[in-house]
Design goal:
Elements (H helix, E strand, L loop, with lengths): L2 H5 L12 H13 L9 H13 L17 H21 L1 H7 L47 E2 L4 E2 L11 H19 L2 H4 L5 H4 L7 H12 L19 E3 L5 E10 L5 E15 L8 E13 L13 E10 L26 E2 L22 E2 L3
Parallel strand pairs: 2-4, 8-9
Antiparallel strand pairs: 1-4, 3-5, 4-5, 5-6, 6-7
Helix pairs in contact: 3-4, 4-5
Length: about 375
């Protein structure tokens, strides 16, 4: 118990040390607006609130608004009860209170969506057409408004001994796989266009084809050597992020792979609110990137690898409003200039996670540029 609690007359077990007769007098005097009524202790406030709720004569007085009286006693008393009740709600459910005020830039569109554990069977519902993003609410009108922030939106399964790894080693491999997603698609420096050094350090350096791809991707980006297949980067001279939050939804799964390896698959959608640098910087758009990456945590007794690194087995992505048909090494939102990207590909919903990424999307060797139904 705190010192403050004892000073307010809270006895052992949280009960008040003031007799019930004294508190009955307090109630009567407060009702009559008597000057000098005793000050309400915090623990007793909850007891009084409960008692008033049970009174049949005035069942709603403790939570109803009442205009101030000329005499200040009762007005202060009612306000004290409202504060006490409000603090109790905050203590029991702070997340709900945050939702009342539209916290997180989501636009107050309902309770957060539970972390994904299995593939959904349908896309999320569509918001009203007038729900456009703003600088203050960059995820407004998007299913991502209810998604979690950063790595909190990436579901991890329970670890179990698999292949050559013990349960503890599998748990570590899962954590490091999620670390790669954070370092490649959430790191603020990488999003500003910096080289993703921490992410690259987690990739097995003995994979010759991957080393060749990475070297070419940052030296001379092209359709076959596109860094955006694995990394999210914006040109900071042209594009700025709106806020510090990236919304995510996805999951990580694993199984035993070849030669007893632990094969980890990540399927995650990232939503980036952005605006132009300079003129027109108040117009907010969203770039949406979904990636499917398969990582193999190999047995070093059977595969040449380095401790704490994985081998890339496959990687592909779908990008909405990030540029299509251009390979600059950066995500390039069109900011309303739809003529910048051809639309000879399929129509897709970038928030639909009920199916796998199509091979013809912006995947390894993919060339199709489609039309997104929403952003």
């Amino acid at each position: 118990m705190s010192e403050k609690g004892r000073e307010r007359g809270v006895g052992n077990g949280g009960e008040s040390s003031i007799p019930d007769e004294e508190w009955e007098r307090f109630l009567r005097e407060a009702e009559a607006g008597t000057r000098g009524a005793p000050e309400e202790p915090s623990a007793r406030a909850r007891m009084v609130a409960r008692r008033l709720r049970e009174e049949q004569a005035r069942p709603d007085a403790w939570r109803a608004h009442e205009p101030p009286r000329r005499r200040g006693g009762k007005a202060r008393y009612v306000a004290g009860l409202l504060v006490a009740a409000g603090l109790l709600v905050v203590a029991l459910n702070p997340g709900r209170v945050t939702g009342w005020f539209g916290g997180g830039g989501g636009g107050g569109q309902g309770a957060p969506t539970a972390v994904e554990s299995t593939r959904p069977d349908q896309p999320p519902p569509t918001a009203a057409a007038d729900q456009q993003p703003t600088l203050q609410q960059p995820f407004r009108g998007s299913p991502a408004a209810r998604w979690a922030d950063g790595t909190a939106g990436i579901g991890l399964p329970a670890a179990r001994a698999t292949g050559w790894m013990s349960k503890a080693q599998v748990a570590q491999a899962l954590d490091r796989s999620r670390d790669f997603l954070a370092a490649s698609s959430l790191d603020p420096g990488v999003l500003r266009g910096e080289r993703p050094k921490r992410a690259i350090a987690l990739i097995n350096p003995h994979q010759k084809d991957v080393r060749t791809y990475l070297a070419a991707a940052f030296r001379a980006p092209s359709r076959t050597n596109d860094p955006l297949l694995l990394f999210s980067r914006f040109d900071k001279t042209k594009v700025r992020r709106v806020g510090d939050v990236v919304k995510t939804r996805g999951r990580i799964t694993y199984r035993e792979g070849e030669r007893g390896a632990v094969e980890v698959t990540a399927d995650v959608t990232f939503v980036y609110p952005v605006a132009r640098v300079g003129a027109g910087g108040d117009d907010v758009e969203r770039t949406i990137v979904r990636r499917e990456i398969v990582m193999s945590w190999d047995d070093p007794a059977k595969v040449i690898t380095e401790r704490g690194t994985f081998s890339l087995l496959s990687y592909k992505s779908d990008t909405t409003n990030g540029g299509c048909g251009t390979y600059t090494g950066y995500l390039t939102p069109d900011f309303g200039d739809r003529s910048a990207s051809p639309d000879d590909g399929p129509t897709i919903d970038p928030y639909d996670r009920s199916t796998s990424i199509e091979a013809g999307g912006r995947g390894k060797g993919g060339t199709a540029c489609g039309t997104a139904t929403r952003s």
